[in-house]
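Why show two proteins at once? Because comparison is the fastest way to build intuition. When a single record is shown, students tend to memorize it. When two are placed side by side, the eye starts asking what differs. So, the first record is below.
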Amino acid sequence: MCAHASAIPQNPQVEGLMGLLQKREFVGLQLTGCDLSKATLPKSDGTVLLADPEPGLKLTNVVLGRGTQNYTCADSTENSTPVAQGAQAILYDVSCIAANHPSLLHELPDVLVQLQSSVEYYMATIFQRLSKEKVIVGHHLFVPDFSTAVFDFRITPDVKRYFSGRKDASVSATAYASKGPPGEEFGAVDWLRLKAGDNSVDLKLAYRVHTAGGKPPGNCKGRNKNFGINYAAEYWFYN
């Protein structure tokens, strides 16, 4: 993959993102290992605030999640409504962008949700242009009954962080958030506050903010039994 990193795929969304980054002169930007003490957590959709982190908790890392919100249908008619079945996503470390260039960070989910095919390849290519650092840092999924969100950062032996928790609170996505890519413009999923369960390691709290896409259609007409809707979001983690 890295051997082809200098060749940006011929994809309008990728080209648009690279244009945004180049215009802002962020090529070569450090992505990981920055001081997060001054990073400011977005908590509001403009009307309602998510609660602050508990006293004593510190921000440990900020990642972008890119994947699908998953749903199931009883049948493929308009009489059935999609039922949420968790999500799956690749996690990309963008802590330094959160610390130093928050306005850029908050634009990325709306752009990244437009990448519908070969997402991991495109993402790795984009970030390879930004930095030589390892930025794929984990995976997001749900277990065992689609009510427990898992963020597993243990993809390298020296990392122990693992978050397993449930929704503590939610607010609607911002009115200006991307509703999703063409054909999936059903709306942006809610912002969330997630509290860690007992089996979490080195993480106590998480927020999902600046969401783009991910909401299902209003009914199941023409849908498969199981399907995913593309989404992207920022995730902020505390310990």
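Second record. Ask yourself what differs from the first in the token line.
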Amino acid sequence: MAARWFLGILFALSQRVLQVAPFALFFACVFFQGSCTCTGETPPPPRGVIACKPQHPALPIAPSVASEIETAAVGALPMSFSTTSTGEASLVMPLRTVPGRGVEPSISLTYSSGGGNGTLGIGFAISAGSVITRCPSNLADGEIREVRYDRFDKLCLDGKPLVIVGKDSGIIEYRTKPDTHTKIIGHDPEDTGTPQSFEAFLPSGMLIEYGTTAGSRPRGLGGAPRAWLAAVARDGRGNVMDYGYCFADAGEYTAEYALDEIRYTRFEGSPAIESTRAVKFVHGTKDPRDIHTHYSRGMALQSSLRLEEVQMIGPGNELVRRYPFTYELSPTTNRTLLTQVEECAGDVCKPPTRFQYKSDPAGFERINTSIAAPTSKRASPMLMDMSGDGLVDLVVPDTNPAL
């Protein structure tokens, strides 16, 4: 009886420690800058998860100086709500960067009710960089084809399909569909059919280079690029922004990647000036119950990163402003949910913006339908894209019991 009572006490204490540990880790990440990074060294990633390591020199960040006068912040984070043409709820929350001669990144927190589970949990994402990816083809392209990491893969710029409008020796010219008046040039010096890098000429006069460095080309099997990430953005006056990423290297391929920092105010004229401002994206690791692995052409690709904080860095690498994020795990789906966003400067934070979610109990709901269930033992309903529109269709086989 005494032994059973002692084991019960140990179990209660262990449960209490498990409840307190995540909060202790969160506060350590907030108050000790750099403790939650993309390097995976502190804290180490869970067993079986590949650490995401920066592909660029580390940026030393000087801590902000706390005010000697006790102050209280007022106000709220600005945001705008809308409904998309497909009926999805949408939210945009701008995150203020440090001004930089008129050429600074536009950073915002976005939400879509139809969004997936990314580094900010269900529905939320950070709008900051740009990327050219391989994307599956559908009937509108003349065939239904998955990504195969070859020269016939369809390419997309920030989700918009690229259409070839011209070819020359080592050069492929594209436009987006629908047209955004952006000219995209693919550089293919070996005439393989798949460019090694890209340049995008925007209507604003900005030029963005994609995949021009090894640290902006996550690899697939055989060395084929999985994507071409924005590496450099420059205007016509010589002002430059540099993008840095972290890669989870699985040996023959990149298992996961994420935007790690943006440095800006670099000047390529005479005299040349190095960057004095930056945006740092501090990543941690998701709850193990929400870490998933999916497979693509023989590659085990992981989804383990969680964005803990966005830091705005000013001259002297001083931390000017930061946006910490708070999460919880859905009790029914075990997926990450963003619950709180704050804007902090020094030791003062504005009142947090909180998000609440409706959580229905787990289970099944009986719905009356005219669709007859198959009565044959050899048949069962199937989910597949029969129409080629990218949406899953419910396919019910013949209900003839004689089959």
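One difference worth noting in the second protein: The two ends are 62 Å apart (CA to CA).
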